Records
---
Amino acid sequence: MSSSSRSSGAPGSGRIIVVSNRIPKGDVPAGGLVFAIDEVLTAAGGLWIGAADPTEFALEGLTEIGSGAYDRATFAITEAEHSGYYLGYANSVLWPLFHHRPDLLNFHDGDFEAYAAVNRRVARAIAAIAEPEDLIWIQDYHFLMVAQELRQLNVTNRIGLFLHIPFPSPTDVMALPQVAALSSWIAAHDVFGLQTKRDVTSANEMLRHDSKASLMPNGRWHRAGHQFQILSFPIGIDAVGFEETAKAADVPQLQLAAKAPLLIGVDRLDYSKGLVHRFKAFGDYLSRRTEGAPRPTFLQIAPVSREDVTAYQDIREELEQAAGSINGAHADLDWTPIRYVRRHFDRAVIAGLYRRADAALVTPLADGMNLVAKEFVAAQDPDDPGVLILSHFAGAAEQMEDALLVNPFDHGSFADAIDRALHMPLAERQERHAALRVSVFEEDIAWWTEAFLKRLRGTNRT
């Protein structure tokens, strides 16, 4: 790697080595996690490691794909490993389990072995280039074993992992065939970061059942001679940047009737997002709507993801059936209540739609954080803001108590919340929005990165 990746900070300081499954191979997009990592590495110097496109064979080591203020490099992965590591163990076992859906676990012979092989290859690549003062910052569930593999390679660097998805409950986690090893994977880190206090509670409860782990008076855990911390770091957004984007955005022509309310949802097409429950709750609201009342339109944008995973094919069919049934029951010649779009839109278009919307439905059944809630708040005009309807099961609910909080499984009360949002007086909308803005703008993406890295730098290597 190039010398430009070397930190110019205090004597003895090292690089930041970031590991993520996805890595920008071209220009870095504005906003989001990718933007935040780029900002950190540009300021501090370092190396960003991600997966290369799958090939027939996988070579050892890293392939440099960019340099400048910091380096970017990829590790190799085969087509078979992509199937077993990514589509298999990561997204057909860990993803549903960590989103509290053990009923959707899909085990295949060889998937865990592929996951372990990729994690070991990444660890060997890091061990070959890491210098003693480098910080190693791992992102998400794709690399739960990397820290343990690094320790077995005698790497003593400070290692942190941030899990962007929820942590499974103590009962759900028992469905993982490798549950006996999960504690040792976590314990190999110095800081194991989670989104919410609720997640920290679940992780701590799991560790309490590990006879080799003990909770120390200072709040740290001790296992196999190593101390580590489990802490919550609720991820934020580039609030100022997103607000400016929303202000400057041209609102698409939606061809709605004058004064017709617009509700919006923006999610990846995923069973964890509660989209079918959301459609049904909106259908309940429409059934209660009085004659002559304004005719709202619910715009749901849900780009397709992971089409090769069976559970995603099923949720797509179920959602299309729900949309068709509700529209068939309530639509008129000049009104389609649900507009369901399965394509990606640019960030500026989404920001403009948020600013135009009267309410946002952010109602996952399980979610690590859900940044759509924060983007919606940042995009609003403070003088005439829309209303955020937020699930209790979104991690964001811990910070955003002034939203209309709902149980997405209870379609009746969910429908009541939609009605309340569309009839909420201006003064109440302004008051709620002002309160929501505080955490969105104070605990933004820069705050998140600084908080995690400060904690990681401050750990004592043991």
---
Amino acid sequence: MPARPGAGTEGSTVLPAGPTQLPPSGLGDSLPATRETPVDDAVNGQEHPQPLFEVDEMVAGHFRVLGQLGRGGMAQVWEAKDLELDRRVALKAARPRPPVPPLRKEARALAAFQHPSLVTVYGLGHHEGIDFIVMERIFGVSLAERLEERRSRGRQLELSAALEVLTAIAAGLAVVHRSGLAHRDVKPENVMLTPDGRVVLMDFGLVLPEYDSTLRGFVAGSPPYMAPETLADRVGMGGGQLVDVYALGATAFEMLTGRAPFVAPSLNELFVMHMEAPAPSVRDLRADCPPALDELVGEMLEKDPARRPQSAQGIAWQLRGIAARLDTPRRAASQPPPAPDTGILDVLVVEDDDALARVEAFYLEQLFGRERLLLRRARDGEEAVAAVRQRAPDLLLLDLHLPKLNGIEVGMQIRGDGLAPDTKFVAVSAGAQESDLQLLHLLGFHHFVPKGEGMQERLAEVLIPLFPELSSRG
């Protein structure tokens, strides 16, 4: 899965409001109730909107467009090079159109925030009829992608990891709410996980001031995470933050169980479940969930906003308390046993090409001597993570282009799960991009060796300083 920032208001829905104005049965029956339903595009007859920019186009005189990172019904996100400041940025662009709150409102809202869980805005511009926000280019994967990766392998997110991410989201929302704003589209797609451990709440395209949160006439959000009062168009004055609390509860339920709290074959049925069906218990689907966490998620999913936790800050404090009471600290529980100190260098070669794996093994034997090496091999990303869980190697030679999980994703998972803190990582690739190298540095992997001619000498230049006592050249 590519590392990218959030792609605008993907999957968000803008529909006529009110309990008697839910989508007609034709629309509801034809659109499954999933996060990926681009209702806004379908309604406006633009299932494939035209790109707003072109690659290599100069925007506002000094932003050179590098490529599109994502798109949704309301906006497109492009990667660009700021030629004046010599840095990569993300441009979120849209043509102003009602009833969607304009991009300028989103930019002004974000500009007021300074918090690790919120994206930084650098500026606002206009180019040939297109509004755009210049913002921090976030490298990483979305929470939705991380959850899908776990689902595809039949695994659930670790409790400690889920608590860490939820706490960061709640802390970010607390800053938003203290500024008198409501996000209104909290969901896994709008949460980015970066290699250096940041949890970033993205996409403020639906943000509204609390004094404006009673705006009538349309309902906006993403169906699996929409609060009952939003669907009924009954958000009271100052009630926007409790809409966010409900969406955070739905996100928490999905993180802990692997599925949304309410699942239905049509939008109409899903909306009815949000408004009438009791929220399921997390512990019914996950027995190791602490009772206090199950209770907190249930409270966030209360139909009556008055019965939900009344502040995101309070939720963050409760989540920290639950995390502190877990029986076994996360890193102690997940840390594999270290390799015994035998004077033997334990090396894990992660390479899907058999011939290249043999070449790398030969180079290592030339550097350290066969008798000083314990060589292991993983042929894809999943095998690599499993091998590290079994025993942390002294050295991991990691190809960046692998089946199943690529090298960047392997590194993110190893770092994210607290594995192998003492292992030396050396990335190898025949075609690493600048963005790959930036991600590697964020992960703390500072050694890179290009494949091809001269690889043996380049490996020696990197490895001898790392293991001088074992090198046959030392």
